[in-house]
Each structure stands twice: as structure tokens, then as C-alpha cells.
Amino acid sequence: MTTATRSRTKPEAKVVAKGVAKGAGATAKAAGAAVTASAAKPPARRATAEATLTLSSKNYSSWSLRGWLLARFAGLEFKEVMVSPDDADARKELLLLAPSILVPCLEHEGAKVWNVMAIGYYLEEIRPDAGLLPAGRVARAHCRSVCGEMNSGFANLRSSLPVNLKGHFPGHKIWTGAKPDIERIVEIWRDCLARYGGPFLFGKQRGMADAMFAPVVTRFLTYDVKLERDCAAYCDTVMAMPEMQEWVAAAKLEPEDIEELDMDF
User: What CATH class does 51-259 carry?
Assistant: First the structure.
């Protein structure tokens, strides 16, 4: 190779090397941009099965109201599946003639849950930040206790003052058998309101206990049960919740009447 040839080769080599370096830099820059774009792009949302909540009458069913409120408080999106009051099994439940209560029933991602307490605990498990139960250990134990008492007790109240959101019976005479139930419920409310400061039973946030006792609030209003100021204020708080107003509005649009639950007092 001549001297002239060698002198031409060196600049050419520099040009080639520079081009290669520039190409490598562009490739790295493009790769970096692709990584950045990939990081900025939100991950694809995992498809989830739609939750369903089976309900019966919104005018008469205390259990359906409880389950519906729990699901709404938990922030769970769900589709309502309404069972007609003409359905024999649903009618037995409304008339307190069924051996157990199977409505409401929540179906969510393979789980099928009935009984409002079971629904409440399931929702608390999958939505722990929703605040269905209070934060403190002692308060949580207290909340579970009063919810369980409402779930399994107060049979005389249920039978003598059935839920009827369309009805209003001023001056209604409370049957003797229901009075101890009312007194115990008032005791629970006053204790909770005094201990946790209201306006809800366990403080500033509505929760499982308020869903469990919401149908009792409607009973007290329907049958004109006289309450002290603190309990009356709690009733107003519950009825002012947007969820309660939505439920009551839907209940009043129901065309069906169940004669046994819509009697004249």
C-alpha cells in the first residue's frame, strides 16, 4: 500500500467509525425511548368477572337493604338481580316463614356468599380500606358483637314492625313483645354514639353496623316510634345518606304489594 493510499484510509476509517458510533447512539437512544414509553404505558387491566347481588323487594326486605348497603359502602361494583316477591321462596323469607335467609346473595370472582354477616365479612376482606369495620381492635370487636346481635336477635321487632318503606302509621301502638327489643336497640345506639362520638355508630365513617341497623331506622320511622334526641338524630343521619335515599326512592316505585305486610294498623 502506498503512502497516499494510507493517508486516504485513515480519514475514511474515522468517518466509518463516526458513522458506526452515531448509529449505535441512535439505536441506544431509540431503545431508551422505547423503554421509557413502555414504562409510561399503564399495564393492561385484568378482566374481572362482574359481581352480582341478588335482592328481593326493596320496599319490604330488610336483609336486601343490609346487603346492598354493605356492597355500596365497600365500593364494589355489582349488578342487581331482583327476585320477584311472587317467588315462593322469597315470599317465605319476607314473611319470616323460611328456615333461613338466602337473599341477598353476592356472587363475586367465583365466591357465592349469602347471609348479610358473611357478605359483610367477605367485603371487608376484599376491600379492607373501605372501613366497614373500625380500625381499633377493641372497637372492631364491639362492632362485630352488635352486628351479630342484630343479625340473630330482635325477633319480636321483626314480626310486629315489618319493614314497609311506603307505609307510615302515626301513633302506632307498639306491641308489648317488641318493647324490650326497642329498648335494647336504643341502648346499643346510645352506647356507641357516646363512646365513639357519632354521627355514625362507630364514629365519623359509616360502616357495617350502620348497614345492619338501617332497616331498624326505617321501622322506627314507619311506625312512629318515639326516640330521645340522640337516637332521633342518628335516624336522621342514616336516612340522609345518599345510598338510603336512592334505595327508598326505588322502593317507592315498586308496584308490588304484599298484603300480609301491608296491613292496616
Answer: mainly alpha
